[in-house]
Amino acid sequence: MMRWVYLLIIALLVACGAPRHTRPGDVLQVEAFPGAPDNAVASRMLYASTAPDGTSIVVSALVIVPAAAPAAGGRPVLAWLHPTTGVAPGCAPSSGPGPFAQIQGLAAFLAAGYVVVATDYPGLGGPGVHPYLVGNSEARAALDSVRATRNLAGAHASNRFAVWGHSQGGHAALFTAAIAARYSPDLQLVGAAAAAPVTDVAALIERPADDPLWGGLLSYAVWSWTRAFGLDPNMIVPPSTEAAISATAKDCLESGRDLARLLADSAPLRGTPVTPNAQWRKLLTENAAQPGPPAVPVFIAQGDKDPVIVPSLTNDFVRRLCRERVPVRYLMMPGVDHYTAGVRSAAAAAAWIADRFADGTPANDCLSGGVAAQNDR
């Protein structure tokens, strides 16, 4: 019920027209959110951000503020970037079941005195199409969520922040590191942490391997990019896939029941040939993660039993970071799959982030030989 009430509020806001002359990070609406963790208060907000085409858009986010008094200079900000939850309106974590439990490491971040902001990304809790795995869209939403948190009364947020995300959220974290200095010079990014990040969108959707989610992720990408960029879906997948893609694109992915429905709806897509034309290929290339500035340290965690993001892709990306002299802490987790990578690495990510806020010298596995020791599995 809460999800649909919130969607009604958003629809009314859009029908009345978003305020004119907004700047990225302006808070447009805020409401108290129930069920916050002990010793914290939560709000859901709508804020202004920027679409890939440069137009102003409305994005939703959840903000959790520790009850303890802020430190001198304000609270550091932790921007949580969520994994894939779907592409349909209403698939926003902030309007779904158990949003606090989905923020991996939340208790540690609140205990450390950070204010936590969890953007829904464009088009999930706000109006418009969700540009799924479009890096600049995710990154702008993340950066503007930090700006909005700084503008939120009672948050007492500083301009220093870190980003932490899993899967799609890892993709978002890496793009945030790449564009932060250019897009938001008013903010200071101390580090970017990612668990099982999507680094190569083309590899994700063109090579199913043993990934049970492949058909669903393919559907999300085709449905989203067709609408966000006006692309022809028949220029990447056969026309016979239209019904399965339309059905699957309506599915959210926030619970075990959601997963079962997604797998059933996407089953007809098994064996689908994926042959992107030049337009699709250009966007796939543009949305492959790129190493950010060397000044932004990176933490990456990867499970060696991951069927969705195969370890060899992450290994290759980490080596690219090393070649660009980015300090990298690389945590390879034996026996860990894609679905638990965020949970299993949250404590290590939280400790690494705390060290970034404390201005410690970042660990660098590029120099220690830790990266070279990883096997392509």
Kindly describe this structure.
Strands 1-2-3-5-4-6-7-8-9 form a nine-stranded mixed beta sheet, sandwiched between helices. The chain is globular and about 60 Å long. The protein is built from twelve helices and nine strands. With 377 residues, it is an alpha/beta fold. The termini are far apart.
Number of distinct helices: 12
This entry's quaternary arrangement is single chain
Largest sheet: 9 strands, mixed
Q: Outline the low-pLDDT stretches.
A: 1-8
| Rg for CA atoms | 19 Å
- Percentage of residues assigned to helices: 25-40%
What structural category arises from helix and sheet content? alpha/beta
Which key phrases capture this entry?
19% strand; alpha/beta; disordered N terminus; globular; 9-stranded mixed β-sheet
Entry summary:
37% of the residues lie in helices and 19% in strands.
Question: Secondary structure elements and their pairing?
Answer:
Elements: H1 2-16, E1 27-33, E2 40-50, E3 56-66, E4 75-81, H2 106-111, E5 115-119, H3 135-151, E6 157-166, H4 168-183, E7 188-195, H5 201-206, H6 214-229, H7 242-249, H8 256-266, H9 278-286, E8 298-303, H10 311-323, E9 328-333, H11 341-357, H12 365-368
Parallel strand pairs: 4-5, 4-6, 6-7, 7-8, 8-9
Antiparallel strand pairs: 1-2, 2-3, 3-5
